[in-house]
Amino acid sequence: MSSALTDLFPHPIVQAPMAGGVSVPHLAAAVCEAGGLGFLAAGYKTADGMYQEIKQLRGITSRPFGVNLFMPQPEYGDRGAVEIYAHQLAGEATWYDTELGDPDSGRDDAYDSKLAVLLDNPVPVVSFHFGVPSREILESLRRAGTFTLVTATTAEEALAVERAGADAVIAQGVEAGGHQGTHRDNPETDGTGIGLLSLIAQVRETVSIPIVAAGGIMRGGQIAAALAAGASAAQLGTAFLATPESGANAVHKQALTNPLFVRTELTRAFSGRPARGLVNRFLREHGPYAPAAYPEVHHLTSPLRKKAAASGDAQGMALWAGQGHRMARELPAGQLVEVLAAELDLAKTALSGKGDLR
């Protein structure tokens, strides 16, 4: 990886930006202080809310960190499909004693306002999800001294990232928890995602910019495998979800290793975009019928998810998790970085033929 990024953090460990209140400043700070790259998630926040979190993070660590933005989404034409889904969710609204959200609550996630803040008050790293920013935006961030990363789920998307001028690409395998960062939401490709190691190899043969590997990584040995495949660093989300610094709901944290939740699945049930979560009642009952309508479905189900979380009902929550969720460790975030780094060193020694993994 180019020194412009590797100089920012000693360990090739990136804490994934998890929107919805998970990637809070104290989590990012703990990761940064331990030698990884901590991230704030600006998704679903106002521009001022993002700015206040940046100020808070800067108050508790002087180390480099990142901020993630969601790209604005194109208009969704089939209003009827959203209305039909809203009708299907009427029973959920009755059950949780709430109203469904307004599907027209906004499409751009205050993208322009957030960019203005990040250009006026530059941060070390900015990443993008759900698409590729314009070359002009990436150049503006570079001139401000910001390193840019963009998520890709295929080699073709990675090529688009490189051509736009991003400094590095996040190769997100299908194992990843939460939303897939596909550039275009095409229902015809549902369930056809690429596994991380295959994706790294394909992306490595397609682009020359550095690769950050993401998707189901929970152990240092997996980081070593990603590096050996061609990545320069690894991004972990679910592994940090269970830490005490994480802002995730306690029910969500407990569900990661709860034997009631044995597998994950990609679903549109909660947001209208493919996202990997633990299979629960809501996902099973509504996933097959949810339209490809993001962020309309996200806004529609928001009150339901909040009431389920408030009542401690894991069966109605969006329990985002990667395929390695059963390997989650309830360690402080800083200690987790140290353990992962030690596991990585051991795995690298074994791969070099100087030891073993016993």
Automatic annotation (TrEMBL):
InterPro entries: Aldolase_TIM (IPR013785), NMO (IPR004136). GO terms for molecular function: monooxygenase activity. It catalyses: 3 propionate 3-nitronate + 3 O2 + H2O = 3 3-oxopropanoate + 2 nitrate + nitrite + H2O2 + 3 H(+). Keywords: Detoxification, Flavoprotein, FMN, Monooxygenase, Oxidoreductase. SUPFAM superfamilies: Inosine monophosphate dehydrogenase (IMPDH). It comes from the Bacteria. Its cofactor is FMN. Pfam families: NMO (PF03060). Belongs to the nitronate monooxygenase family. NMO class I subfamily. This is Propionate 3-nitronate monooxygenase. It comes from Streptomyces coacervatus.
